[in-house]
Amino acid sequence: MDPFLTLLHSFSLSFSDRELSSLKFLCQQEIGKKKLESVRSGGELFSILLEQQLIASDKVSFLEGLLESIKRKDLVSQLKQFVEEGQVNDPDDQPDEHEKPIEVICENVGRDWKMLIRKLGISEVKIDRIVAAIPFNLYEQLLQSLREWRKLKGKDAKVTDLIKALRGCKMNLVADKVEQ
To answer: What residues does the DED domain cover (predicted)?
Structure first.
């Protein structure tokens, strides 16, 4: 799944009706009134903006301007973080031999996932950024945190380290599943 589309989707879910109306108003010159009248969600608006190439994963200044205009500094900072971290078309985001244990961990670790991530050495700041970028989805938060750990460790990211961290957090059942 395209990380940029995922980001746009999370933005669209957070818009109030008033914010969506403001965004539509601000886009009148680029899109046209008639087309905007049929827009009922942020996702539909983003689809049109993507279609007309006003926004893209490597072209976010228009989107940033829109978000600033409706006073959504939280979304502006998420967008900037997204661009800074190079999550756009990141080759490290492709599945590899570490994905299977990561899937097992994500499916079996619950609300205590932050304890595991801390044990793996990910900073509180990175954890907070991930939570802010993906609110209300524990599975995705854990998945992105584990990918962040893997990116941080590079070639030194080993499944044995994951198992050791799981056992250190008293998550022995999950550690056993990963070993299988």
So the answer is: 3-81
Indicate the pLDDT class of residue 98, thresholds 50, 70 and 90: low
Residue with tokens 């939280």: 74
DSSP code for 59: B
Residue of 169, 173, 177 lying closest to 116 (CA atoms): 169
Q: How far apart are alpha carbons 54 and 9 in whole angstroms?
A: 17
3-state secondary structure of 107: helix
Residues of the domain holding 115:
98-179
How many whole angstroms separate alpha carbon 178 and alpha carbon 102? Answer: 8
Q: Which band of pLDDT confidence, cut at 50, 70 and 90, is reported for residue 86?
A: low
Q: Last residue of a domain, which of 61, 87, 113?
A: 87
Residues 110 and 136 in one domain: yes
> Higher pLDDT residue, 95 or 145?
145
Query: How many CB atoms are located within 10 Å of the residue 166 CB?
Result: 25
Burial 146-164 (b: 16+ CB within 10 A, else e): bbbbbeeeeeebeeeebbe
Largest Cα span, the chain: 59
Tell whether 79 and 144 lie within a shared domain: no
